[in-house]
Amino acid sequence: MAAGLAAALSAQGHSSEGLNRAVIFIGPPGAGKGTQAKEVARHYGVPHLSTGDMFREHVSRGTPLGRQAKPLMDSGALVPDSIVLGMVEERIARPDCARGFVLDGFPRTEPQAEGLAALLEKRGFRDPVVVHFVVDDGLLLRRLTGRRVCKVGGENYNIYDRPPKVPGRCDNDGGELLQRPDDREEVVAPRLQAYERQTFPLIAYYRAHGVLQDVDATGPVDDVARRVMEVLRKAR
Ligand code: ADP
Ligand code: ADP
Asked: How far apart are alpha carbons 201 and 169 in whole angstroms?
């Protein structure tokens, strides 16, 4: 964790309070959800559940689910709801999710949101807090095309805004930094379209349920982290 971010989070002093609910990070690809989710999850000591990371793990292990998801991911399309929901149901049933979790990249469609609501109710969770990452499209392109991810530990960088100390190498473990295949310019447009068409309607859905919190996701990582933590603190 960046020293400034660690200080910003610990200054808020919530780590002992526990989360005890589902937190949903919603926003377009590249908005910074994963970057913030990792830190919030670490701060509260709860799992960070990224459905994109889960699918990438299946793809790299060559599982049947991975083989099914790969062509869809490579073209910027969403994986079918039933597959995503089954994977999430299995994951949140594990004991480490009992005190809450941070969902990053899920739900992405209304059927997924409905499915999640049923899963949360079944497991006795109260309403989730939904954090909406607000950014403009110009910034998204810069964040997506500039994103590089460590092959070893998964740490993420941005060649424009958050470069590693040594080009192409992870600051933490020296691992090679790779570009995700779907972050190439030709796949970014269909991903943003999928967001607009299938995921954006969830903003109105969660707003109508009174659980949506808009967060300005522009500016440095530490500033966004402060805004996210403030929202979570107030939503308690
Ligand atoms: P980003 O963080 O850039 O928005 P993700 O890592 O969340 O991207 O997702 C990468 C890809 O994995 C998506 O383009 C999609 O194909 C698939 N995926 C991840 N989460 C979901 C989901 N909840 N529903 C359907 N497809 C998903
Ligand atoms: P998402 O999970 O929403 O797709 P990421 O967290 O992976 O987004 O961030 C996308 C890219 O933008 C990464 O290269 C990341 O390092 C960078 N990034 C994230 N937050 C910020 C920020 N506040 N300022 C500058 N760059 C950022």
From this structure: 38
